[in-house]
Structures are given as C-alpha cells and as structure tokens.
Amino acid sequence: MSTAHPDRRFVEADTWTASGSKSEMLDMFHDFCPRVQKLLKLCPEGDVLEWKLRVHEPLSHWVDGNTALVGDACHPTLPHLAQGAAQAVEDAAVLGVVLGKIKSKDEVHKALLVYQALRKPRADWAVATAAANGKGLHLGSGAAQEARDAAFKAAKKAGGENPDKAIDQIVQRTLYAHDCAQEAEDRYDALFSQI
What we know:
The chain has 8 helices and 4 strands, in the order αβααβββααααα. It is mainly α and 195 residues long. It folds into 2 domains: 43 residues, no CATH class; 132 residues, no CATH class. The strands form 2 sheets. Strands 1-2 form a two-stranded antiparallel sheet. The N terminus is likely disordered.
C-alpha cells in the first residue's frame, strides 16, 4: 500500500527537493548580470531544484517530557540574517550547560525547561528579525523601496540604524556579543528554582 499523496505535484511542491523548471528559472533571473545568466544556462535541466523559504509562527514550547527540540526543528530561520546554524549552535551550548548541571535523571525535564526559557526569546527574536530583514531587502519598486534606499544613504553618511539588519551595529552587538553559555551559567539556578 502506497503512502504517497495521489497528486504527486502536491507532494513535490512541499519538499525542499522539488524539481524546478530551467526555463522558469531563466525567466526569473532574466535581468541579472551576464555572468549569472551564463552560470544558470550551464545548469542541466534535471538539476534545477525549487527551495521554498517560509516564515513560521513561533512554537509555543520546545520541550515535551524529557525531549527538547533544537535548531530548525523549533525555530526555522530564513537566511536573511545568517543565523540559522548559529542559533542551533547556541541551543547546543545551552543544552550542554543545563544538562551538565543536573544531579539526577529526575531533573532532566526541569533542566530542559530552563533551556527553553533561556533560548526561546532570543531564537524567536532572531527568526523575526531575519524575516523582517528579508522583507525589507526585497521590496518592489515604490515608496517603501525609496524610503529604504534613503535610509541606506543616511546610515552610510551618519551611521545609526541600517535597513540591512545583518550589518546594523545594534543587531550585530545583540547577535555577536552574547555569550549564551555564560548566560546559562548565570541564570540556571534562579530559573531552575522557578520552574
């Protein structure tokens, strides 16, 4: 008995390995520079894949019993801030700290809830910031694009907030100056006692 969906196109459309059309790809990138055009034309017809990027609502919780989700399983992130893998690494670092503090298997669940309390707000912020950055960087022609471009010019001249959050100084400090393992060390006991 087959478990495949009767409409194969439906299944392929919802997978990251869906075959794409070379002609559609070339149409999509018709106004890119000649070098990109040349590279795209070299791609064999059967090797074009469609990879859909989607924004997901944050999960309400990452922990169920003694099981916790990490990385894209609990906070899938668009690539517009380059934080998907980095946030997964932070998850792992915090898990290492909190699980290293338990004294018995009876404490696993509470330690995982501490992990969630430490990581979820930050990861949810990174996901939302990446999604907003992608939206802001891919505006069509119009007033919103003109306002964004003016903000780019102002940031270049005077500094301050940058429309591209990947290079914005405040966002960079939030991302790169944060020591998630130290935060876990510092806050573990208080969070563990509250859960």
